[in-house]
Write a structure and sequence with these properties.
2 copies of one chain form a homodimer.
Chain A: H1 8-26, E1 30-31, H2 32-39, H3 43-56, E2 59-62, E3 75-78, E4 84-90, E5 94-101, E6 106-113, H4 120-137, E7 145-152, E8 155-156, E9 162-164, H5 176-181, E10 188-192, H6 193-204, E11 213-218, E12 222-228, E13 231-232, H7 251-254, H8 256-259, H9 270-282, H10 286-310, E14 314-318, H11 325-339, E15 345-348, H12 355-371
Parallel strand pairs in A: 4-7, 7-10, 11-14, 14-15
Antiparallel strand pairs in A: 1-3, 2-3, 4-5, 5-6, 8-9, 11-12, 12-13
Helix pairs in contact in A: 1-2, 1-3, 2-3, 6-12, 9-10, 10-11
């Protein structure tokens, strides 16, 4: 067996390094013996890799446990605080931001209201403020960020430009990637908000176990995010999930059944009426129950089209209306059963208003996994990756 | 650098073996030097691997080229004829079968008509006959097969049982996997026919370059097969693609606009009327053109729902009606443009009636790739794989 190894050794060394990093990211702190076992490497090889990783700043030694017997074994941890990511959710009424470390541990979050009627410049000013406050709250600056994801309504191109936003017309054409890039280091990714909410559900929400998920944003607008084979589905030109644009799907008119409810006091803002309908339906008001039924019926046509097309394991009911899942879920499930060949499980989101910003954080982390912690790439000393 | 390699060497040897096999499958015949270069291995390592592969029956030496100068270099080829796969398409009117070798080279095909009104036993007898004739035509027996895929209309479970067939009601409940397993060696896979036609298009059809494809079966029934991220999309319980079951999608009534055309001679079988409508539309008959327009409109509602949901690169118009693409394509594209955020390319299938059987062959080959030619599995001497 005198197999000439050629270029295979440095490749092997790279794989060993990543095996150690992955072991420490799964569980920390670990002793040398534990790392070697978890990474499936010899003790001397593990020691060499750990020495390099410590010198580079990826790994730190942990202080010995007080009171332990004999000479305590040295223990190692992955330095998740070597870098940070930022998730920003730009909604119609609110802008949110969350900072997390490389392990997805949340460090700080901020939010600010913005009028749905705000112009583009005003909304961008609020975005800047929320980002600055969120970084300051975490004790960081933009230079500490390794990746940022910005979530927005509408159809976004690969460059980070909003191609079309029906919900916020003044938003169409804004180059969010460019705007935010001026404020942070590392790559800035821009992504559709429904898609990121779906991703958040597979990360920290009710869809953690599912590979095929239809996420419904049920609120003052209706949207969808798709997870297929465990991955966010974007489509060929990032326009996937826009099934609601087809009038036959019922999503354009669905919320009007609630906004137009006649039981609210005259002069109530239609957006406010919705909460009143749900409350009245909860109390058994017949008119309110009928309005909810009509809403659910229209919501379920588009939802059934997605279920029939994709056969997901799970439908997640998210968005603002998911707070009224007690009123919505049962009739919604019944409508799906009427229409579908196989009815999937339906669960309400438990992430509340943070779903989109959480998804943005996860999306930024996934980008780093792919570009930094992947066997295809070497592992250099920790620093913000270059912009693509 | 005294890295202990432990279990890594035999793994390396396995990878080297597969690198040689992949090199020879990409291009054959090759000299030793060419194989070493294509597999990115040293000459001695390549020689050792080739010797083993030849002894096992995976690789054969090719006779030296007549008339070449000097002592001709030995050349090697992958033995694609070490095993074969079978694809069977059980349709309403016809049963087809194709045998191919491990490189997907087609060896023989057979077809037989069957009445759409045939009972289950009669249809299965035709299936048996076509399989036997196809194998005989290729000079093989069932024992030579390494994998078989059977295509059928309807929703099929993982065991190979038809859970629901709307097109062929007597077919619901038939255990196709079990039936065909008695006639061939190796695993028998059963799969929905629209899905396999979509797969065929990505293999030898118009969708070769596309990662996201919506395939439409446009014929006496309307169906869909989805390719997402380069892979056939089945969904959680293999029920994906059934969007046509939703009445709002227009697919249930679509073909009735053609079958019900009033321009055909009284008493014509409605299924026969369709060809007459297309011919009359081609000649500019107003009534026929209107019927085609109504059909296209309904076809495009469901198609738009899929396009809006998935944002494919390409829509393939397949099925029996795709022979009239000259009449259908332009109005169909126009309807999509009206409804979609981004209109993909639309191409008619060029595979004709063989699409489903070809897809079945490809599906069986993919199964072998995954279970035999994958780095995760060793490579034993060529013989039919065990049933799962």
């Amino acid at each position: 067996m005198t197999e000439p190894l050629g270029g295979n050794l440095s490749r092997l060394r790279q794989l060993n390094t990543l095996a150690v990093v992955h072991a420490l990211r799964r569980q920390s702190p670990l002793t040398l013996t534990e790392v070697a076992k978890a990474a499936n490497l010899s003790r001397p090889a593990t020691e060499e890799v750990l020495r390099d990783l410590e010198a580079q700043g990826w790994v730190a030694q942990v202080d010995p446990v007080a009171g332990s017997m004999g000479r305590p074994a040295r223990r190692y941890r992955f330095r998740a605080d070597a870098g940070h990511v930022l998730g920003v959710d730009i909604g119609g009424h609110t802008v949110r931001a969350i900072v997390a470390d490389l392990d997805g541990e949340l460090r700080h979050s901020e939010r600010r209201s913005v009028s749905v009627a705000a112009g583009r410049a005003e909304r961008l000013r609020v975005v800047d403020k929320v980002i600055a406050e969120c970084l300051a709250g975490a004790g960081l600056t933009g230079a500490d960020l390794w990746a940022t994801t910005v979530a927005t309504t509408g159809f976004v191109d690969a460059d980070g430009r909003v191609v079309l936003s029906v919900g916020l017309p003044e938003w169409t054409g804004v180059h969010l990637g460019e705007h935010v890039s001026g404020r942070v280091s590392g790559p800035v990714l821009v992504e559709n908000d429904c898609r990121l909410a779906a991703l958040a559900e597979t990360w920290r929400g009710v869809a953690r176990y599912a590979e095929h998920v239809v996420y419904l944003l049920a609120g003052l607008r209706t949207g969808a995010g798709l997870v297929i084979d465990g991955r966010l589905h974007r489509g060929f030109a990032r326009a996937a999930g826009e099934i609601g644009a087809l009038p036959e799907m019922g999503w354009i008119r669905a919320q009007e059944h609630l906004r137009g409810w006649s039981g609210a006091p005259a002069g109530t803002d239609p957006d406010e009426v919705v909460a009143l309908v749900f409350a009245a339906a909860r109390d058994g008001d017949r008119g309110a129950l009928a309005a909810v039924r009509r809403y659910v019926r229209d919501l379920s046509i588009g939802a059934s089209a997605l279920v029939l097309a994709l056969d997901p394991q799970l439908v997640v009911l998210g968005g603002g209306f998911s707070r009224s899942a007690d009123v919505l879920l049962e009739p919604f499930h019944r409508e799906l059963e009427k229409r579908c060949v196989r009815t999937p499980e339906v669960l309400p989101s438990a992430l509340g208003d943070d779903a989109v910003a959480l998804g943005a954080v996860k999306h930024a982390l996934d980008h780093l996994e792919q570009h930094i912690f992947d066997p295809g790439n070497g592992l250099a000393a920790p620093e913000p990756p270059q912009r693509p």
